[in-house]
Design a protein that fits this description.
CATH class of one domain in chain A: Mainly Alpha
Helix content of chain A: 55-70%
Strand content of chain B: 15-25%
Radius of gyration of chain B: 18 Å
Order of helices and strands of chain B: HEEEHEEHEHHHHHEHEHEEHH
Largest interface: A-B, 25 and 34 residues
Bound molecules: adenosine-5'-triphosphate, magnesium ion
CATH topology of one domain in chain A: MetI-like fold
Helix content of chain B: 25-40%
Largest sheet of chain A: 6 strands, antiparallel
Oligomer: heterodimer
Chain lengths: ~550, ~280
């Protein structure tokens, strides 16, 4: 704000000073909001994974509070807050007493037993809170976490190991590892191998349909089908056996109120004693939790497990969008700025493009559905996939159409940035090139474009940031709550652009507003939000690094 | 420009210009005939006629805005790029009109090198800057390119300074070095004509002297047209001088004659710094 060239400014400085303050305040407020938002999301998003202590709570006998008829429960304290008192008398009494009644929220888990996983209790109703050392937290495949005390192991041969036995914990750990390995094996067979066979069977069915009544063509198809069928049956049998073995051993545990429950070990993912963990163990649990969140597939209506498919879907979609939008936007801008005859028409095109940037994104979604999905996709289906109709292949939402819709939405950003970058290349440089006998296109290609690349990439970065965070249009053109397969996998042809996909933005919406238990989903919403922001930052950083490299490279002209 | 300078004060400058000591080529190599030029409604040149001889240095002088650059840029049709321009009359180079529709403007520009008033190196390496005209002509023989770079940079008196940093960005050079690099770039594909628009406008006396030496050395091979505001410079380097005023060619002739006994009053006033 200070100017070194003081003489002409001095007279005005007295007037300018307060204004400088206003601009600084504006910036600070903006920064504060951004930093506050990021901090809130980051803290809430990562706190989910921190293994908190578990309390056992005894409820006063005379209070009306109880959980499934019992006056004792265990859980993780989520929050403590002042109660909202509707009753005026109660409020006055509270004010007179000087202590406002408190209310505690506990995450009690054991959803299979309690039918709920969050429990509110009046502070006055609590008789005692303690942190029992040997209470265990069980991470389960279904129904979320359970809190309880180990009773023993019931093995397949009928033997039981009581929890007091020194062999109990080692045995439980070994069996736990074993079921986890078996679960992976199962998913390899069912998702991978059987999935591939199903895919081949579908293709055979199409070929069969095409062959019609031609017996000569049908015979080898039938033979192949038979072979696939046998392979399928063997695999299915193996899978069935593995699955049966998952529940041959059982863990018995006791809820704080005393009732015993059994859990087939196949349902147990992990267990720990949250009140025995030291700082480093807790950190390790924390990091492990984050890793699982990033790398695993969601379970339990997305409220448990990880978000890997959503990360992958967002990433692939943003990449596809960038690949589509870049050449399109750059070529359009080059034509507009460099080749089109500047006049009323070009001016109105430019205004239209700028206005396109302000169209609500859902409008693009509707357009994408009508044009890409129904028209283009429908045409592709009737031309190339007519055998599988009426089941649509491309004629339904998919990652390709979603990417193209977003590309359309972000193309104005790229066009405007590219035009800006092109117009900033000095006339002197262009003239120098032309005077050397270069044609207009050579000048473009060798001088103007390389020098404009950083500016163009800035536009692309903005476009990516906008595209990666967009949700509304995606809901119309291919995003789903739970996609069975990734758009990229090991079955031919590897890229499945017609597939539906998961997306972090939609995942947040789905968890926060569509989930049956919004309280349980809340931490996941924060964690997913933090992740989406992180992903956008990573993508942008990638583009910025690329821009810096290119800037250096083109500045040296190693074109 | 140091104002009241009479040619008499700088006799050595004039003697240094070896006009007539060497046989020049065709006396009307570039023939400008009744040439007028308009930027929209603004007429920048009025019926200019003059002949520029081959392999000599011709200087255009005159006050700012009188149309020197405009005329220079018409020789290689750089003004094509500006919208709404119009011309009358003709310019012939070696007997052929530059406005001939059958003439490809790219091939014309390949035969005419140009150095601009403001130095404008490309944001590429020094090496790539020099060989740019060869690159766009499709030349990729490494040996030839290397040879051209050395020969051209030597001709532009820049070789010794940059020979160890050819792969560095041209933007890291000093202003004077950049201007010499632009000269090197302009002569790299051995054009027939070299147009220089105030090549020393932004340079210190030492760099200026180097470039002047360069111009004198270059005229063995090229026909040079130079625009300058520096009277001594015109006197030192040029064989012929044209004085322009308000879009008109006031006087054109042998440099020695123009500086010693200008025919026109305006010329004398301008040269002696008594102008306006
Ligand atoms: N691109 C242009 N569009 C419109 N008018 C122009 C343009 N370029 C030059 N002119 C006008 O043409 C006239 C001659 O300009 P020119 O650049 O040829 O002057 P000059 O003699 O080179 O001046 P200087 O010594 O300041 O460089 C001026 O009146 C100028 O305003
Ligand atoms: Mg000029």
């Amino acid at each position: 704000m200070e100017t070194t060239n003081k003489t002409p400014r001095r007279a005005k400085r007295g007037v300018g000073e307060p204004f400088i303050w206003v601009t600084a305040v504006g910036l600070s407020l903006g920064m504060l909001m951004v930093v506050g938002l990021l901090a809130l999301i980051l803290v809430n998003g990562t706190a989910v994974f921190w293994p908190d202590r578990v309390e056992q709570v005894n409820i006063r006998a005379e209070s009306p509070f109880e959980l499934r008829g019992k006056k004792v429960f265990a859980g993780r304290l989520v929050k403590k807050q002042d109660r909202i008192l509707q009753d005026i008398e109660a409020r006055e009494a509270a004010e007179r007493a000087g202590v406002w009644p408190q209310e505690f929220q506990y995450f009690v888990g054991n959803k299979d037993a309690y039918g709920l996983s969050f429990f509110y209790i009046d502070g006055a109703a609590i008789a005692a809170r303690e942190q029992p050392r040997d209470i265990a937290q069980l991470e389960r495949l279904e129904y979320g976490d359970a809190f309880g005390y180990f009773v023993g192991l019931r093995l397949k041969d009928g033997a039981t190991i009581p929890a007091g036995d020194p062999n109990f914990l080692p045995q439980l750990r070994a069996l736990n590892r074993e079921v986890n390995e078996r679960r992976e094996e199962l998913s390899r067979i069912e998702k991978g191998q059987i999935g591939r066979i199903n895919h081949q069977l579908q293709r055979l069915a199409l070929r069969q349909k095409e062959a019609g009544n031609d017996a000569a063509a049908l015979a080898p198809i039938e033979a192949e089908r038979q072979e696939l069928q046998t392979r399928y049956e063997t695999l299915a049998k193996t899978a069935g056996e593995l699955r049966a073995r998952q529940s041959e051993n059982q863990l018995v545990y006791r809820l704080p109120a005393g009732d015993e429950r059994t859990l087939p070990l196949g349902q147990l993912i992990d267990f720990r004693f949250p009140n025995q963990l030291g700082f480093f163990e807790r950190t390790s649990v924390f990091l492990h939790g984050i890793w699982k969140f990033l790398s695993e597939e969601p379970r339990e209506a997305n409220t448990e497990g990880g978000v890997f498919p959503a990360i992958f879907g967002t990433f692939v979609m943003t990449l596809l969008m960038s690949i589509a939008v870049t050449p399109f936007g750059i070529l359009a801008a080059i034509y507009l700025r460099e080749y089109a005859k500047q006049g009323v028409f070009v001016r109105s095109v430019r205004i239209a493009v700028n206005n396109l940037a302000g169209v609500p994104s859902i409008v693009f979604g509707v357009f994408g559905l009508g044009f890409f999905v129904y028209f283009v996709g429908g045409t592709i289906d009737s031309l190339f996939y007519s055998a599988s109709l009426p089941t649509p292949t491309f004629g339904t939402g998919g990652i390709l159409w979603a990417s193209l819709t977003l590309a359309l939405m972000t193309v104005p950003v790229v066009i405007v940035a590219t035009e800006e970058a092109l117009s900033s290349i000095s006339r002197g440089m262009r003239e120098a090139s032309l005077a050397c006998g270069a044609s207009k296109w050579q000048t473009m290609q060798r001088i103007v474009l390389p020098a404009a690349v950083p500016g163009i990439l800035t536009g692309l970065i903005l476009a990516m940031a906008r595209g990666a965070g967009e949700v509304a249009p995606l809901m119309l053109v291919g995003v789903v709550k739970l996609a069975p397969n990734l758009p990229l996998d090991m079955t031919f042809p590897f890229f499945h652009l017609e597939r539906k996909f998961m997306h972090l933005g939609f995942h947040i919406y789905d968890l926060g507003f569509q989930s049956p238990d919004s309280e349980a989903a809340k931490p996941m919403v924060f964690a997913t939000t933090a992740l989406l922001i992180g992903l956008v930052i990573v993508l942008n950083l990638g583009a910025i690094l690329l821009r810096e490299r290119l800037r250096r490279k083109y500045a040296l002209g190693a074109f | 420009m140091d104002a009241p300078t009479t040619p008499a004060a700088h006799p050595e400058g004039l003697d240094a210009a070896p006009s007539g000591k060497r046989s020049a080529g065709a006396p009307d190599y570039i023939k400008i005939e009744n040439f007028s030029f308009h930027y929209g409604a603004n007429q920048a040149l009025k019926e200019i006629s003059l002949d520029i001889p081959e392999r000599q240095v011709t200087a255009f002088i005159g006050p700012s805005g009188c149309g020197k650059t405009t005329l220079l840029r018409n020789l290689n049709r750089m003004n094509d790029l500006i919208e709404g321009v119009r011309h009358e009359g003709d310019i012939k180079i070696n007997g052929r009109s530059v406005f001939d529709p059958a003439l490809e403007v790219i091939s014309l520009r390949k035969r005419i090198g140009m150095v601009f008033q403001k130095s404008n190196p490309f944001p590429k390496t020094i090496y790539e800057n020099v060989i740019y005209s060869l690159r766009v002509a499709g030349q990729s023989d490494r040996k030839k390119l290397d040879a051209t770079v050395e020969r051209t940079l030597r001709a532009a008196a820049l070789w010794e300074e940059v020979k160890d940093r050819l792969k560095e960005s041209a933007l890291s050079l000093s202003g004077g070095q950049m201007q010499r690099l632009c000269i090197a770039r302009a002569i790299a594909n051995q054009p027939e004509v070299l147009l220089m628009d105030e090549p020393c406008a932004a340079l210190d006396p030492i760099a200026t002297a180097k470039i002047e030496e360069l111009i004198i050395a270059l005229k063995r091979d090229f026909t040079i047209v130079i625009v300058t505001h520096n009277m001594q410079q015109a006197g030192r380097v040029s064989d012929l001088t044209g004085f322009f005023y308000l879009g008109q060619l006031v006087e054109f002739g042998d440099t020695a004659q123009i500086f010693r006994q200008p025919r026109e009053r305006q010329t004398e006033d301008y040269i002696s710094g008594r102008f306006g």
